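FW: tagging you since you asked about this chain on Friday. Here's the raw sequence from the shared folder, copied in full. Didn't touch anything.
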Amino acid sequence: MLNLTSTSDIIRVVTSQAAQIEVHASYVDWNGSAITPGRTNTPHITTATTTTVVAAPGASVQRNVKHLNITNDHASASCAVTVEHFDGTTAIELMAFTLLPGENMIFGEEGRWAHRDANGAEYPAAGLGAYNGFSVPFMKLGTAADAVGFWYCTSKDAGFPGAWAPGTPGINGRVTDGTAAGDAGCIPIKNPAVGANFLTELIMGTSVIHSNLFFDVLWVNSGINVTTTTAQAIVTPTLPARDVNGATNGEGCMIGLLFVAAATNAAAIANSTVSYTNSDGVAGRTATLANGNGAQIPATPVIGTIVWFFMQAGDKGVRSIESITLGTSLVTGTVSLLIARDIASIGTFIANAQVQRALSPPGVRLYNNTCMLHCTLASATTVTFFNGELSVQEK
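HL: got it, structure written out here
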């Protein structure tokens, strides 16, 4: 139970993004001589805001909250929901969950919180003995990278999984779904039957020592003209709810440029830019490259080269892309832009010997329909065999 004992005490809900949050509260009031039941149905919360869901009691009245039911009734958007007790001065967080569409969080009279999925099944408690785990093998034979210090993506290479390709969605691109045929070739992470997936461990071996990065692609495009050096307009759709908060805002997401076919520019390029809206909804931001290996487009980039853009100072992610300006012609080739969330990285130290990295509990959340790819920061241009295993726990 929750007690409101002053005329300043309230229970309020903080919603982190736009969805449709519905709240019911039941309570009883005690004025010293009589018990009066009460309830409140809060009007639908459809914005990122702070909303009072249980008002303060009257003077000389104590209000005891018996039940709270908070549901995300939006068709597609997830929402991080925080419940607070506020006494007029100090806000204390009581519980917070990320509610996927159709999910709810419930506070009962016994003081226990529950998180239920869209089918009404309760999420199991996190911790040992409260999860189902599975492993995903990973093997790829990558071709030669451009030069030491440049990024190379294994998505197009044979192995397990097989090759992944952006397809031909056009300049405005498409959102991804790692469980659908259109994204076959991404590292296969099955959606959980109940609860949520967490990446808990990486095991990696390489025939040549490299640094390895695993990332979730949320959006990809095609159709960029590689000889146009002025801005090429892009209208991106709403991202899937797979940013670091399980939302569509793109917090924790970055911008990459993947070479789907080799280009023939004669020198390195550092004047390419991307205009984007950041995860806070601020438009007109500019992502840039820099002079230096790994931070610019190399000369004559090979197929599989990937370049990660630097975001503008203070930005935590990208919600949408409005245009790309190559600045200098790539002469030939094919490129695709990506919006991707960094999942985890692991380095190798001895050739052909596997290393292990355990991720701090509970691990890294893998949201439903994750489309995971792998890239490496090359320490040599040698053809490399990659092999490893990802451990996923369903909690």
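FW: The longest strand covers residues 334-347.
HL: agreed, and The two ends are 27 Å apart (CA to CA).
FW: great, closing this out.
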